[in-house]
Write a sequence for this structure.
């Protein structure tokens, strides 16, 4: 089973995009037990904060955003946030995702964020949602 750290931006994209788009396929793989996604207090807090923004009100009515966050928290593999090591990326807000992946032995980070994609290496790959969906042989939309 593939063990990954999924950037909260991928979860947000899955929440607001069609179900069969690549981010939705990634979340579906998590829910189906086809991947292990590491979740930590910082990751869940960021996801909740972003989905709590006013601009998501039209798609997050009646508590569905909170339910989505809770579902991700429940289905993910809960881990503690590691001690921060600043400078892993050009965006300090993304550094914790690299720390999570390294400390908790993830095979890759799943993200479309250019700051994370730019730090991809053989030691710590960064896959786009589409690349993970292809790796899992999930159908394209």
């Amino acid at each position: 089973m593939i063990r990954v750290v999924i950037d909260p931006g991928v979860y947000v994209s899955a929440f607001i995009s069609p179900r069969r788009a690549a981010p939705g396929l990634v979340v579906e793989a998590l829910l189906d037990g086809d991947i292990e996604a590491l979740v930590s207090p910082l990751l869940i807090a960021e996801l909740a904060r972003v989905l709590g923004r006013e601009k998501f009100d039209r798609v997050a009515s009646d508590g569905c955003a909170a339910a989505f966050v809770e579902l991700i928290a429940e289905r993910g593999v809960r881990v503690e946030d590691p001690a921060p090591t600043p400078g892993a990326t050009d965006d300090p807000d993304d550094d914790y995702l690299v720390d999570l992946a390294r400390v908790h032995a993830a095979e890759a980070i799943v993200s479309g964020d250019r700051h994370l994609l730019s730090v991809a290496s053989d030691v710590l790959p960064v896959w786009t949602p589409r690349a993970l969906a292809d790796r899992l042989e999930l159908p394209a939309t």
User: Anything to note?
Assistant: The chain has one domain: 2-135.
